[in-house]
């Protein structure tokens, strides 16, 4: 069996046997969730690895990726039509999102009897390639978490995480030279919260930031199901409302004080904050930071620990050096800021199907 048939043979067999497996349009949010987050099926071959990749964390859930399947390589290219030029002018988050997607492939590949090796092409526009080699089929310890992981933007229960679990998630998040810097001391968490609040205030006062954010909010189920991307009201812990009503209520619901109070409650109910710092500040470093964060999130999920990002201080360029200085990072760029703790889950976010993100090779 050559490499092409390793990747695609099983897909063809499966498709021939199961013509009904093609996804139909879901009619409720729950149906969409069921379809998007159904268990991985190794019999579907490499396309199932692409599906695993699309389930990764990604900025604003823009799903800024295109996948190309060739003989023994999956290439992830940035989808520049889905970039967020205001919040992410240098595409840092976009490439971190590609890193998150690549990490899910790394974790899922052994299920298909494949070993994944990630390389980054930093030449414009940049891409991530994942070379797949045959190995004995096995189940990677973190693969099961791919379907359960979510960014849980809710209040947690305030309980501490044991030092053993802290060590486990810290080790998972220290991948490829990326430092996973964990803060659990309350006074230091309060100091980071101050930066989050400063950043949030600056962002909410910026009409361009707000316009970009609102363009990715999916205010109700029917829009969320139709678009299968963006920030669904439900998965952000908000009620789903008709779009016209939601837009009118926005100025009352999305206030600076309301949001800042929410972030304070979120941080104070968390067990700790993890900061991811890549050794290099370029596309390869941003992909590495995304991979490390995704692995941290998968490991946390396995331990029943939730997480959510608090990136305002690394997104607002005037605050980034200040928080780097506070954390003692010197000239290194803090890539991602994540709170973690235990608590209930929220409804999962949605994803576009694999057919919408694969390009011909
Ligand atoms: C690079 C990156 C930056 C992100 N920044 C934020 C953020 O600042 N605030 C936030 O609430 N979520 C942030 N997220 C989380 C995404 O919004 C989330 O992954 C996406 O909506 C999909 O939801 P899910 O992870 O629950 O599947 C970020 C994710 C990534 C990968």
UniProtKB/TrEMBL annotation:
Gene3D superfamilies: NADH Oxidase (3.40.109.10)
Name recorded for this polypeptide: Tat pathway signal protein
Taxonomic source organism: Bradyrhizobium japonicum
